[in-house]
Amino acid sequence: MKVLVIEDSPQIIEAISLCFQLRWSEVSVISSTSGNKGVEMVETESPDMVILDLGLPDIDGLTVLHDIRSFSNVPIIILTVRGDEMDKVKGLELGADDYIVKPFKHDELLARIKAVLRRTTMPQLKDTEDVVISPELKIDFTTPCLYKKGQTVNLTPIESNLLYHLVKNEGKTLIHRYLLERIWGEEYSDATEYLKVYIQRIRNKLEDDPSQPKMITTERGLGYKFIKPTPKMLTRRSS
Ligand code: CA
């Protein structure tokens, strides 16, 4: 496995490399101290995972994240500074898979990386055929992507996994804890902030008006429910 570290501090790169050398020697670490070079290396080196510092000298780490996500679904863990809640949320919104707060311990870094790999390595979904939601909406969980009004919209592994659970349990309320444990792992059972961000990301891709969701509804204080649109809910087309 190859991990790309995009981080301007040589000491932190050194610490991460050492952590892998000692604890997980099958992993090779490559690095870039600049954001632009880092984006380029995702393309040329095809790493299996990216660890991205948000405070970089040339471009903002969130821009780097956005640029990587425009062409790659590689798992990304962002490094944030303690207390910077906004950056964590923005990072997750822009498609980071998890975050680690600096300074961190080796154990914590390895645990996060393993958890991210576990959930981004897609479980083999049985459906090989597209799931038809409505005449204008189909989901292909194997690619994964959805087809909406003739457009193809890509889904990240986590988005697809979360949507899969909701669609498979159509009409049932799935509680926060159930979803968090299934998709993120048991140690995340209370981390509702992840769920919130990912539900919003799916709504943005799926719903006609993400601010008035009709397919993925919030069951306040409980969880979320997937409701198949009825023909009445679909926009009427003039013939
Ligand atoms: Ca930095």
Q: Approximately how much helix is present in the residues?
A: 25-40%
DSSP summary, beta strand count: 12
**What order do the strands of the largest sheet run in, or round the barrel if closed?**
2-1-3-4-5
Which of globular, elongated, flat, extended, rod-shaped describes the shape?
globular
Write the CATH fold name of the largest domain: Rossmann fold
Q: Write the CATH architecture name of the largest domain.
A: 3-Layer(aba) Sandwich
The CATH class assignment of the largest domain is Alpha Beta
Number of domains: 2
Average pLDDT confidence is 89
State the end-to-end distance.
Answer: 55 Å
- Major sheet details: 5 strands, parallel
Low-confidence stretches: none
Describe the overall structure.
The chain is of the alpha/beta class and 239 residues long. It has two domains: 2-120, Response regulator (Rossmann fold, 3-Layer(aba) Sandwich), CATH 3.40.50; 131-231, Arc Repressor Mutant, subunit A, CATH 1.10.10. Helices cover 39% and strands 22% of the residues. The chain has helices spanning 10-23, 35-45, 61-69, 85-93, 106-120, 157-168, 176-183, 192-206; strands at residues 2-6, 28-32, 49-53, 76-81, 98-102, 131-134, 137-140, 145-148, 151-154, 173-175, 216-219, 223-226. It has a five-stranded parallel β-sheet with strand order 2-1-3-4-5, sandwiched between helices. Strands 6-7-8-9 form a four-stranded antiparallel β-sheet, with no helix packed on it. Strand 4, helix 4 and strand 5 form a beta-alpha-beta unit. The longest helix has 15 residues, at 106-120. It is globular and about 60 Å long. The N and C termini lie far apart (55 Å). The model has no long low-confidence stretch (mean pLDDT 89). It binds calcium ion. Residues 8-9, 53, 55-56 line the site of calcium ion (CA).
